[in-house]
Amino acid sequence: MIATKVILAGKVYTPKEEISDAAILLEGHRIASVGPRSQVKVPAGATVIDNSDRIVVPGFIDLHIHGAAGHDFMEGTAEAVSTVAAYLARHGTTAFLATTVTARMDRTLRAVGGLARAITAAQGAPGGSGQAAGAQPLGIHFEGPFLNVKTRGAHPAAEIRTPSVEVFSRLLDRAMGTARVLTLAPELDGALTLLEFARSRGVRVALGHSNATFEETERAVAAGATHAVHCFNAMRPFTHHDPGIVGAVLTDDRFSAELIADGVHVTPPAAMILARAKGLERILLVTDCVSGAGMPDGTYRVGSSTIRVAGGVCRTKEGRLAGSTLTLHAAIRNLARFTGASFPECLVCATLNPARILGLEKRKGVIAPGADADLVALDINGGVTQTYVQGQAVL
Ligand SMILES: [Zn+2]
To answer: Active-site residue 21, yes or no?
Structure first.
């Protein structure tokens, strides 16, 4: 028998629609219906969860996260995945892509193999026993190794490679069907061939850590790469004579753009420029957060590098930014503050928009019949009071 639950909410943002005095009917791990309380038929015997003094929104989805709570995905262990997943759920994130960093190939292959096993295990039996201890891993985002050394950010120069179908095939084999996104620099020799190969294998290609000119970027867009990784960061800087990749991201409507909205990676006025150029429909909030997130200031590992976290800001020993300690929940609030948009308006950037990039917009990032019951309850001050992953409360 499928367990039915009704979540009553003072307000629901689906996220596009606002429903006051709402009810969400859950059947097992899915949403059966949502609407004003007076219109949702509650079956006899359903468990009623009263959140009528709360706001309920779709769970947040992070497409770019390297680790948290002392663990780094390059450890490639089930423990790393489950620890990060539990941390994320406490902050309202219900799904994520485990993101790699550039490292030695043998290490990367080992990590990817371990991640693939952990992700496959966590995805088995939706709503099944033991699966709701945290956010759900949706797959792997490969950040590197096919990046431009000039715009490498915190990725180690010695391990960066020229684009290679052969090398990526090895990574894909280890990923056992869990590869979702490949970030590459499109100006490198062989990048377009690799781009086409990745797309033919069902992997979305994102552009980043790139020194591409406007024209080089547009060639990659024409080949189907329409997602920009952490816009402004690790990109050829924009000037009016040389608009570069940033100019292409800002002006080409086919592009969606990730933003690390911590106020450190990108200043509030630059976030405003991005919002004006792209509209909230084409911005994806990501954390890019690392093992030091949710931990005290100190020294942490990201892949094979050591980073220092001071005042919540992560840097390599050369002083380069190296990921963040941000949560998506905080990022949504920051984006609202930076742009003057409301919190509900900014919700799409962390729910529906990332779901759409993965082709999951019917199942994730939305409160609608048939979608997974991935939900967050917020109190009147916006604090997370409960997170549901596939219908199961995790807090
Ligand atoms: Zn990066």
So the answer is: no
Residue 20 sits in which domain range? 4-56+379-393
b/e for 256-280, b at 16 or more Cβ within 10 A? bbbbbbbeebbeeebbbbbbebbeb
Q: Which of 137, 131, 32, 139 is nearest to 392 (CA)?
A: 131
Compute the distance from residue 151 Cα to the ligand 1 centre, in Å: 9
How many whole angstroms from 233 Cα to the centroid of ligand 1?
8
Specify the 3-state DSSP secondary structure of 50: strand
Domain co-membership, 129 together with 223: yes
Whether residue 201 is found in the same domain as residue 157: yes
Q: Supply the pLDDT for residue 132.
A: 60
Residues 274 and 309 in one domain: yes
- Give residue 259 CA to ligand 1 midpoint distance, Å: 11
Q: What is the mean pLDDT of the chain?
A: 96
Give me ligand 1 centre to Cα 165, in Å.
21
- pLDDT tens digits, 64-107: 999 999 999 999 999 999 999 999 999 999 999 999 999 999 99
Measuring CA to CA, which residue among 329, 390, 327 is closest to residue 363?
390
> Residue 340's domain is classified under what CATH number?
3.20.20.140
Q: How far is the CA of 193 from the centre of ligand 1 (A)?
A: 22
pLDDT at 129 over 90: no
Catalytic residue among 62, 288, 372, 374: 288
The answer on 264 and 205 residing in a single domain is: yes
